[in-house]
Amino acid sequence: MRAVAVFPAQRQVRLVEHPEPAVVSPTEVKLRMLEVGVCGTDREIVTFQYGTPPAGAEYLVIGHESLGEAVEVGASVTRVRPGDLVVPMVRRPCPDPTCAPCRAGRQDFCASGAFTERGISGAHGFMTEFVVDDEKYMNAVPAALRGVAVLTEPLTIAEKAVAEVWKVQQRLPWTRPARAGQPHSRGQHAVVLGAGPVGLLGALLLVNAGFETTVYSRASGPHDKAGLARSFGAKYVAAESVTTRQLAEQVGNIDLVYEATGASRVAFEMLAALGTNGVFVFTGVPGRKGPVEVDTDLIMRNLVLENQIVFGTVNANRDAYEAAIRHLGTFAARWPQALHRLITSRSPLGDAPGLLTSEPTGIKNVITIS
Ligand code: BGC
Ligand code: ZN
After folding, report:
1. Whose CA is nearest to atom 7 of ligand 1?
2. Alpha carbon of 297 to ligand 2 centroid (Å)
3. Average pLDDT for 235-250
4. Which ligand places an atom closest to the C-alpha of 36?
5. Cα of 159 vs its chain's centroid, Å
6. What is residue 322's DSSP assignment?
């Protein structure tokens, strides 16, 4: 079968013939892959800054944001039936018997670092015709979400982040998640840094949770990201014309910053503008470009004197997948166009190497497999 693979030693990315996998255990499911999204992580992998083939393999089949259709299920599979749409999870637990997170099914918190990630690190990914994996890594998706379910995995990043924000903010018992569509009693303000797919999906989630949400981003380009953000009730502020300090004056007390740019300088400037009792969440993984100057005294004073919290988050657990699938349905009902506008191109598998190695354009680019 065809697959898109990266060969780190030869510094190549190309279409390969890859052996078709088969169901060999009663708990496995075989998927025909329908769509795979392309993200910044994939672009880092095809420029050989990140990503590792499976042990002993010369190449890595890439792709981790995916949607497939179950075509065969092992005898004891209960979570999926043939014909179901399925989004597989990305990370697989490490083998270390002393790794408490992995042994508890929370490999997104793996403590040994020996986890694998399909399409990223030590395990082949989903940009191929068929995939087999254990049903415990599969999430069934309603058929009505066929056109947007490829956005599930990037949305899980925001789901995990926001779930953790609520856990952290239990320290403030008067601050609670709003009921769907209802604003918070005190009007909680969120700022989203970046208007890529992770940022815009995070903004959708925060607007839906009742936050007054502002997307702060660089030039919006030919795809009207500002218009898209406004279409679902977020504000959009251009980073070129408004400083982070001015932004804080416009917004009011910034209760939450959801960072989704991977740009550390603007992120730390924004951290200095975080509000009282606020939480700052990092999701971006910047390339290492050398130190930048930040006002550490100001940031440290604010952290202490304003009870602030900063945390980073990577990957996502099953709860986050289930929440993401549920919320895609909510978003599709509340803002029917927004999710479709996030997907700005669909290209066939054969175009993937070219797309991955050329300048990124649009918001979410998707590879259509079948
Ligand atoms: C993926 C995550 C993964 C992370 C680090 C992201 O692009 O969405 O699932 O954990 O990269 O490899
Ligand atoms: Zn990704």
Report:
1. 41
2. 34
3. 95
4. 2
5. 9
6. H
